[in-house]
Design brief:
single chain; 79 residues; mainly alpha; 0% strand; globular; ATP-dependent FeS chaperone activity; P-loop_NTPase
Length: 79
C-alpha cells in the first residue's frame, strides 16, 4: 500500500461502524429482493493479507475470516 496508494495510509479505520447484531445487511437484501450470502468478520489479518497481495486462504493467519469467505464463494459458485 505504501508504494501504490500512500495517500490512504493517513486514513483511520473504524471496526465498529455497524452494529452486526442487528442484521441490517440481511434486511437490506430482503428489501432489495436479493440473496444474503453471509457475514465476514472484521479481521485485521485479512486486511494485512490484502495489503500484501496474498491469499487469505494460503495460511492460518486469517482464521477468523477465511471460513466465512469460503462459504460465500461456495454460494456464489453454486448459483
Amino acid at each position: 500500500m505504501q508504494e501504490r496508494a500512500p495517500e490512504l495510509l493517513n486514513l483511520v479505520a473504524c471496526g465498529e461502524a455497524f452494529d452486526s447484531s442487528v442484521g441490517r445487511a440481511a434486511k437490506m437484501c430482503v428489501d432489495a429482493g436479493v440473496s444474503f450470502l453471509g457475514k465476514v468478520p472484521l479481521d485485521p489479518q485479512l486486511c494485512k493479507a490484502v495489503e500484501e497481495s496474498r491469499s487469505c486462504f494460503s495460511d492460518s493467519k486469517c482464521a477468523a475470516s477465511a471460513p466465512a469467505l469460503k462459504q460465500i464463494i461456495e454460494k456464489l459458485v453454486a448459483t
